[in-house]
Structure formats: C-alpha cells, structure tokens
Amino acid sequence: MSAKPTPKSTAKSVPAQSVRLRVSLLYTLSMLFLMIIASLIGMTLGSGLGSDALKGVTQPDFGLSSRTTTQGEQADEPEPGQDVAFLSESEVLTQVKERMANKGQTPAQPTASPDTATAAEGDAGDGTPEETPDKPAPQVGFPIVSKDGGVLMEVVGVQPDNGSLVLDVNLRNEGTKPVRFLYSFLDVMDDQNRPLSATAEGLPGEIQPLSDTFSGQIRIPQALVEGIESLSVSLTDYPDQKLKLQLSGIPVLQNVD
Fold first, then answer.
1. What are the tens digits of pLDDT across the range 179-230?
2. What is the Cα 223 distance to its own chain's centre?
3. Of 105, 141, 160, 229, which has the fewest CB atoms closer than 10 Å, so is most exposed?
C-alpha cells in the first residue's frame, strides 16, 4: 500500500495569515503612536497660545488680604518695633460728654447790620430789569379759524420763503376722540376756484383728544399765486371724512421777492 501525499496548500496558508496579523498590528500601533504624538504637540501648542493670549490678565482678588486701607488708616498703623499707644478711658468719656453738651446748642445766626441792609437795598434798586425779546406782531386779518367736530384749524400768517408762499398753520383737537389726517386730501383753491399744488410740512398725521396745539406749514409755489388775491384751504379727516375744516379769504402777498 502506498502512503497518501500531504497537501502543501494547508502548510503554506498558516504563515501567510500570521504575517497579515503582524502587519495589521504594526499598522495599528503606529497609528496610535502617531495620534499620541499629534495630541501632545496640539496640547503643547494650545497651552503656549493660551498663555500668550492671557498675558497681562489677572484675576481680581476679593479676599480680606486685598482690602487696602485709606491714607489716614495707613498713617495710624505703627511701624514694626514701635509701641502702640492706647487712649485712656477718662479722656474718651470727657470727649463724649463735651460732644453731647454741644449737640443741644444751636449756633447763633449772624444778623445783618443796618449798613449792609441799606447797601443791599441800594443794589436792588439800581438793578435794571431784564429785556425780554419782543414777539412778532400778528399780521392784519389773522388768524383765520375753522372748527368742526372739536378740531380747530387756523392760519396765523402768510409769508414768502425761497420761492414759495408759506401759510403758518395751527391744529388742535379739543374733542374726545382721536382724529387722523391724510394730507393728500388737502385742497388749496385760488379766488377763481382753481386747484393749486401744495404740500404740508410739520403737521401731525393723528391728533389725540384734548391735545396741545401743533404748528406746521403749507407751501405753495410762488409762481402759482401770481395775480391771485386770496386763497381757500380745506381739509377732511381720514378715513371717515366726517369733519371738514374750511378756511377761505386767506390774503396773498404780492410782488415780494
């Protein structure tokens, strides 16, 4: 009987597997080693950068040791080697009694001498009254007032300004409800009932009840009012349009540069 041949493939496969395990183990260990080195380098760099960034920044000390004394207290502290002087009890009691005795006494008020009083009266008599600025005199024919629904509108003057005719207007709500205005509804007509282009400035869009007086202006190009003697202005509330403020007979200044 002849012996069976041993397969060679099984013997060759065992060393190949061991070699692969060794290679993978070495690769894993080398990667861990590199990661540890990278971590150490990053920690060192981060610590150095953090220390550089925090240079000059100190944490406040709130302990008892950090409390400083005033200059007077520092002056009272004895130097090392000097004896500490204590106040006697009798001196302390004497000072307390003197302060308590003086506390109930009120200091005498100085009285003015007759000469001083006479001089003060003379200075008061010689004083000149302060001059108050004169208010501008109202224009003739103004104000022109219109009132509807508790809302008052008045034109208090007319003046030319930079190529425009300016109407000085006041608005006030004396009623109990707020009123809103949209000044695109402002109508300005000449004495021939022709509409004129005008813009409102400084007038409020809404007026609360019992409000103060609001002042503003209505500007009309001067070229549109040439040869016109008077104007009329009308304004309605928005959006209800329940009240109408109508002012007519507003005189126009002519031939004024």
1. 999 998 899 999 999 999 999 999 999 999 998 999 999 999 999 999 899 9
2. 44
3. 105
| Long-range contacts, stretch 203-207, CB < 8 angstroms, 24+ apart | 203/169, 203/171, 204/171, 205/180, 205/181, 206/178, 206/179, 206/180, 206/181, 207/151, 207/171, 207/172, 207/173, 207/178, 207/179, 207/180, 207/181
Q: What is the pTM of this model?
A: 0.46
User: What tokens appear for 251 in the block?
Assistant: 């005189």
Residues 158, 167: contact at Cβ < 8 Å? yes
Q: Domain 144-251 falls in which CATH fold?
A: Immunoglobulin-like (2.60.40)
Domain coordinates of the chain in residue numbers? 144-251
Residue 157 and residue 138 in contact, taking contact as beta carbons nearer than 8 Å: yes
Q: Which of 158, 170, 171 is nearest to 228 (CA)?
A: 158
